[in-house]
Amino acid sequence: xxxxxxxxxxxxxxxxxxxxxxxxxxxxxxxxxxxxxxxxxxxxxxxxxxxxxxxxxxxxxxxxxxxxxxxxxxxxxxxxxxxxxxxxxxxxxxxxxxxxxxxxxxxxxxxxxxxxxxxxxxxxxxxxxxxxxxxxxxxxxxxxxxxxxxxxxxxxxxxxxxxxxxxxxxxxxxxxxxxxxxxxxxxxxxxxxxxxxxxxxxxxxxxxxxxxxxxxxxxxxxxxxxxxxxxxxxxxxxxxxxxxxxxxxxxxxxxxxxxxxxxxxxxxxxxxxx
Length: 274
Known about the structure:
- The chain is 17% helix and 31% strand.
- It is α+β, with helices and mostly antiparallel strands.
- The longest helix is centred in the C-terminal third of the chain and has 19 residues, at 253-271.
- It is globular and about 50 Å long.
């Protein structure tokens, strides 16, 4: 196990070091904070995904063996898998590695690229149930909430973004409670694309693709968005939705229906002799 941990962290750091350390999208002062002891169990449904040399973030949804992330973390822009083996590290912990069943994946868009950024999501089935494997350790799966015109104004100012700081070992979970969703107007980027949300959550790039945005307006927080990317590296700039917004896939009714169908297919698959 000790050799595996060294190999994992060494490999991941080598991958990440290929990206300039200045690669970041931070508006004004950096509002990301390391998770506190009080909420250390609040984000254990968030973990790291590795698809070959490509790194991203995923979130457990509804079950202990289903995660969602950005499709471009798993597929390149020609629709090919980035790797034959994909692994998930719950809570970013290399000791809890779980492999992804690459025979059971559903993507909204396998060909994500400039000009074709909508529906950048993918559902993945894990080979083992994280909740069953780690009883009494605070792991949970997240409920979801589709974003629409009726609830957007209520949601937009009550969000939390969770990402990872890959610059230090162990990799730290970072929480941002100070960011907001932006109400798009004519002239803003993605003005005509309903499924893409604009936000001003600070984060490093590019390895936090797929990181979750939660609505936290009550006692229960819901997954509402999946960070996709941004347009340039900067540190300290003012948020301008016409020039430099960070953007995310906003969960919608289409995604909600796909998730329900995916879980139903999983149950049918499990009930047969496979």
